[in-house]
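The authors assume throughout that readers already know how a fold can be written as discrete tokens. For illustration, here is how one protein appears when written out as sequence plus structure tokens.
>
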Amino acid sequence: MARCSGIRADGGRCRAQAIRSSEYCVNHHPDYEDARRRRNSKGGKRGGRGRPQAELGDIKRRLSDLADDVLEERVDKGVAAVASQILNVYLRAVSVELSVREQLELVERLEALEGAVEQDKGGRQWGA
């Protein structure tokens, strides 16, 4: 099969395989622009406040600071225990949010691929 004729963000040529009877892969094909835009707007991998990866780093820093404060006797151990429990719940929520975002992105990518396969087969349904 032929390689995609699309151009990557860094200016290089895309290395993915083109969809059959097309010169573009799923990520560069003009017919899938709306799906790409929706997927990219989710923002899972982009900057911005509230991003799970940034929140994980913040939680780690706070837990480390809390541990230092306990060891230096600046914070009562009981208060620190409650604070660490709260941060643990927060950490779990961020982890669940990250998992949900990843699953949604995978579903959207799978739907785009299924659409490409259906279009490639002339609109035939799976197993037909």
